[in-house]
Amino acid sequence: MPMRIDVLTLFPEMFAGPFDASIVGRAREQGLVEIRIVNTRDFSTERQRIVDDYSYGGGSGMVMKAAPIFAAVEAMRCPEECRERVVLMTPQGARLDQAKAAELARYEHLVIVCGHYEGVDERVREHLVDEEISIGDYVLTGGELPAMVVMDAVIRLLPGALGAEDGAVTDSFASGLLEQPQYTRPAEFRGWKVPDVLLSGNHEVIRVWRREQALKRTLERRPDLLERAALSEEDRGLLEKIRGQRDE
Question: What positions carry a catalytic annotation?
Fold first, then answer.
């Protein structure tokens, strides 16, 4: 049974194209995921399909009304019991990370609600959605682009979505670390050579080198990740070596 992702948006035309190519496009062709883009306005009961109104108490900007969102989400729910999650894209949500993407990939049905304007009626947060997600500490026009990011991060984790069986495991952040440097042919380009260790054919030496480089890159660029990464005794020894080299 494929995973189903329903997206509730005011701008369905924004989703034309991004999911027709690359890994997501192949996952759809293989029947691993079904994506449906739903226009929030289709669930408005007002003559002009209005979905927003002024905020009680005053203030600038408009707020998305609760009724169309409730009606749309309730219409999209699984007809039978299934593992389902309703997500609201909002700057106020928890930050998306690889662990969250992996968690969402285990659901059979995701409903992603794209916020807009000054946000949504608070009753949507309190009584409809299961969680709120943000992709970073900055402001975008609406929840459409963040929804695409979440979908891409989730779909590539579905079994069979990636060509390489361990691709999703070795990606940056999947193991809690940044990925090591990668090289391909030719072995020398404009005088820059591939590290000799990668040409040695010694798989154990290569494995240790790659892990050391991942730890080094993470220490240099995202030391905060090391605080919560699951490090082995070997990792700690490699980190001690790396720090010693920096202090020389």
Answer: 91, 118, 156, 171
